[in-house]
Amino acid sequence: MNNGRTAGQINADAIETFRTSLRGDLLEPQDDGYDSARLIWNGMFDKRPALIARCDGTADVIEAVNFAREQGLLTAVRSGGHNSAGSGSCDDGLLIDLSGMNGVHVNPTTRRARVQGGATWGDFDREAQVHGLATPGGLISATGVGGLTLAGGLGWLRGKYGLSLDNLISVDIVNADGVLRTASESENSELFWGVRGGGGNLGVVTSFEFAVHPIGPTIMFLAPLYRAEDGAKVMRGWRDFMASAPDEIGGSMIEFSTIPEDPEFPEETWGSKIMALAGVWAGPADEGEQALQPLRELAEPLLDFSGQMSYCEVQSIYDAMFPKGVHRAYFKSLYLNGFDDQIIDEIAPRATDRPSDLTLCSVWFMQGAVSRVPGDATAFGNRDMGWMLSIDSIWEDAADDEKNIGWSRAFWGDMKHYSDGRAYLNFAGLGEEGEELVRTSYGAANYDRLVELKTQYDPSNLFQLNQNIKPRI
Ligand SMILES: Cc1cc2nc3c(=O)[nH]c(=O)nc-3n(C[C@H](O)[C@H](O)[C@H](O)COP(=O)(O)OP(=O)(O)OC[C@H]3O[C@@H](n4cnc5c(N)ncnc54)[C@H](O)[C@@H]3O)c2cc1C
Question: Which of 7, 31, 123, 353 is such that its CA lies 20 to 30 A from the CA of 300?
Answer without folding.
Answer: 353
